[in-house]
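Aim 2 progress update. The chain analyzed this quarter is reproduced below.
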Amino acid sequence: MHRWGWWWRGTGRPTTPEPTTPDVLELRVHGVANTPPASMLELAPGQVEQVDGDELGSFWAPTAAAAAVPRRAGDPREVPPGVRREAYSWGAMARLSAVPGLGRVSGLVAGVVRALWVLIIPFGLANVAYWSRDADEPHGRRSSAGGGLVRLFGLLLTLLWLATVATVTLGVVGAQCYGPRTTSGEVTYVQVCAALPGWADAAARWSTGERTAALVAATAVVLVVLAVVGSTGRLRYERRMSTTKARGLADGAGLDPRGTWPLLARPGFWTHARRSSVQWFAHLAAAFATLAGLVSWHYLYRDVPQCTHSDGFGTRGCLDAAVWARDGRLPWALAVLAAAVVVALAAWRTGRLRLDPPGGGRSTFAAEVRVSRTAEVLLLGVALVLLGWVVVAVARSGDGPLRPADAASPPFLGLHALPRSLVALMVLLVLAAVGIRAHLRAAVWVPLVLATAVGAGLAVLWSAGAWGVVWRTVAGLCLVTLTVVASVVSRRRPGRACEGWAGRGPAVLLALAGGLAMVLSAAAVLGTVAWLDAPAAAENQRLSTQTQQALDDAAAQDPLRDPVVVHGPAAAHLHVPPGYEQFAVASVAGVLLLVLLLVVLGIRTATLRRTVVPVVPGGAQPRPTTGEDAAVQAARRRAALAQRAERLVGAVAVLHLLALVGSLALPDPRATYGGALGTLWALAVDLSGAAVVAAFGLVVASVVLAGSKNALARPWGLLWDLMCFLPRAAHPFAPPCYAERVVPELRTRIDAWLGDDGTPLPGGEATRARRRVLLSAHSLGGVVAVATLLARWDGPAGPHDHRVGLLTYGTQLRAYFGRFFPELFGPEVLGTRPSPGALLWAADPWAADPSPVPGPRTEPTLLGSLTSPPGGACAVRWRSLWRRTDFIGFPVDGYADSPVDVPASEVDADAYLLQVVAHSGYPRAPEYRRELDTLVACLRASRPSR
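Predicted structure tokens:
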């Protein structure tokens, strides 16, 4: 790799002088497709060279030989005179990982790393939900505490994964796959699940206590590994600082400290890792304490027959101190209480943590908010001591059976209720999240959530009698009140039509996170059970009902034969805690509903295939008369179908929420019912089991295939590009934010070219006065470019830097990012017109987008910062290209009457055969070169506004 440094500073290698000394840097930034540098520059791979960076982030330019090749007029590879064209490649940050201490690996280790990356996707979605809330919500008693709600949801996700791992290790393997030690004559043996690998037989020689202690420790280790996975990239590209900021030149001197500035322009936004890392300790403390309490609960009540079931637990006196003090169980009871206290404190600290600086006043540009880690470190220390004591106590507990003596009891107590309890809390937080963008006060939703949870818990513990009725009534009323209040408050929010999912973005994203987490959890548990409950195993030999009936009929028809009857043991079935199988049934029903929705949408689209989709929504468009026109119309209809993604994602979120509710409300899958409904229920249970096992296999296969070309490529790379853009603030185990390096790195490049980083330029101030920068960004690169320009507002030039221009194309700034994250990219930040969102059933999803002229805005906005003062040579230094055939590319201001947006050609005129272009190929469009030349001329003619 070439590492020549910032050669234009005069510190790099000598270069051959160009006929015209470049004064404008055209810096191209790729989007979600991770376009290679050569393709960004429209050159062959051998015609570009790396001028700076490393394997994760790098800058590339044409070689001297490629730059000297004469080009025909209109050739997209032709660089305008006086312009230096470069490409910035950042995609490896979002899609590649490394194993700490080992670097890049391959084979089995790489496969495990890829699988673990899949498991932390729900954590990343929770982090996205954090940034969809109102980041400038009121403080104090009027606060909705939206950030705390999302962080509490993230904590529940961590505990759900702990429950999943514990279910596999303790509830399935420990309690069911290792039977009690049995003596037959002179032989002593322990029956082990035949599907377990051979090396697992060695654990049968250990005592039950030693084996269980090892499994408890293994559960904790798996959780730590999952926590480490999200940190594999942190040290490589988080916590970066631009050269300008490092040298003290980005002090915000050009900004009014009394104003309210966009969140992306505030100091410390891209350094959340320093503050949010405190959650790492809180999550581990809560998880370790939960594990310790779970094991202690099992040993506390294992030998108390009346206390092995949760229903009526308190009615049967299981919470009496006499039960705890009997037979040496008091230490286990104290461990349970200590674990509950640690979890409660960790949740309280997580909910009250505030990471973002206030939006107004001088505190906006004060020193970064610092968060003390002392309390969380102490909590983690207490949790580790508690877990260590539990492991030692379990190891010394002897060789008695791990399962309760009653065969009808759950194999491992606590796991019977923990997963569904966590799911219930997640559902309550999702319902409360419906109103947090509308500033539903925490003083309202917190008591309602707590009352519902406590009431439901008491209704289970004291289910019989009048008190059971009272607690169920209280829980039901509080649940209904929470749902109604959150919905009403959300519907009354002004401007919600121009926000993602009508202002319910946090709830939608949390529902997706919780649903996906439960999908992966159910797949892990039920897939493991299906593997261990192998029909081929000797202890699991069984005949289907039909086969057994046929054999019985044959025996009845031949009474003279004296058959040999062998009575074997009943087929063994591994027990699964409630919630997982119910969720599988509800998920299958949800998938069928989603398929039905897609079929109806497809039929609706087919019926409108003759409807003409105009360039400008609502405008006139002649009917196609040529094959080219027909091909363009077909491409527009396909793009229009994909542009309904927001509505479809909202439908998926609702189905996820219903599946979570189904895991709580549906009956026991093993129960049988009569009639047609009973037959339908049995069919749904059978299909769900097979579907979950198939889904588990598909997940594993997709993970393996995702790394077939690159050992440590994160699976489903497009998802990582979108999910990892925002700083990690809601969940410490979420994937790291690549923008925490991309934005400072891109800013450093811009500042170095303009001379704003304090390094003298060749030619001194005369060169500095002449130089300009034009950011050319595609798709998600437009979001990166906007974040970089906003981050430069604290630099020497302030927000109004006449030397900078922006050219975006195929971007999602207005239609998606502006709607999903209004405080980051919304109309008030960009200075553009709001978007009402796509319609689901209309032939043109943007038919209801009138693009009204926005009202007065608080300056500065991004568009305002890129607008020259009246009388200048060029009013606006921002252009954005879009196509109706682009399935994820939209205008940034409006389809018509916009000073920024320009429609691009939808047919590649240079293609050998007819080719309708969609999301790629914008730099080859003639409009690109036209707007590039216009912006370059504007930049050269621009002068400081003050």
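Residues 1-19, 234-238, 358-367, 536-543 have pLDDT under 50 and may be disordered. The longest helix spans residues 146-177. These observations will guide the mutagenesis experiments scheduled for the next reporting period.
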